[in-house]
Design brief:
Blueprint: H1 4-8, E1 29-36, E2 40-48, E3 51-57, E4 69-78, E5 86-88, E6 96-111, E7 115-122, E8 126-135, E9 138-143
Antiparallel strand pairs: 1-2, 1-6, 2-3, 3-4, 4-9, 5-6, 6-7, 7-8, 8-9
The protein binds manganese (II) ion.
Length: 144
């Protein structure tokens, strides 16, 4: 894990986002941030290995079993990003409003090259989920 890509994309003098650093803790939290950027999308983030593993989910994380949504893997974010909400000013990467749509804890069930299985314990999202890597940075997220 690294925050180099995250930090290289941002100008911390002009965005309220945290610069962040890699934590020593493993962590077990998740967040879904609603991000009204050029295109509305939802950012799904799992705390793991001292960072937030992150995916952009155009249609959001499904609440109903069997509905599969595309989740595009993006750069690791700092753990402190888990509480970030606010407006990223025009002219900055990802400019637009960020709101916390859901957050909570997760329990990791299984992780391999192609799939991550976990239980979400959020306010909105509850139950067993799978992230399945089908091509490059493209994953599917769905409830089982
Ligand atoms: Mn985003």
């Amino acid at each position: 894990m690294t925050l180099k890509k995250y930090q290289a994309k941002r100008k911390f003098a002009s965005t309220p986002e945290p610069k962040g650093k890699i934590k020593k803790t493993v962590g077990n939290r998740f967040v879904v941030q609603k991000h009204q950027a050029t295109h509305l999308h939802y950012d799904f983030r799992l705390e793991a290995d001292g960072v937030l593993k992150s995916w952009a989910v155009p249609k959001g994380v499904p609440e109903v079993k069997g509905v599969k949504h595309l989740a595009v893997e993006v750069e690791d974010h700092p753990v402190s990003y888990i509480n970030f909400k606010g407006v990223i000013p025009v002219g900055n990467y990802g400019a637009g409003m960020v709101e916390i749509w859901d957050k909570g804890k997760y329990i990791l069930l299984e992780k391999n090259k192609k799939a991550i299985k976990f239980i979400l314990k959020g306010k909105i999202l509850q139950g067993e989920y799978v992230l399945f890597n089908f091509k490059g940075k493209n994953w599917l997220i769905f409830k089982v």
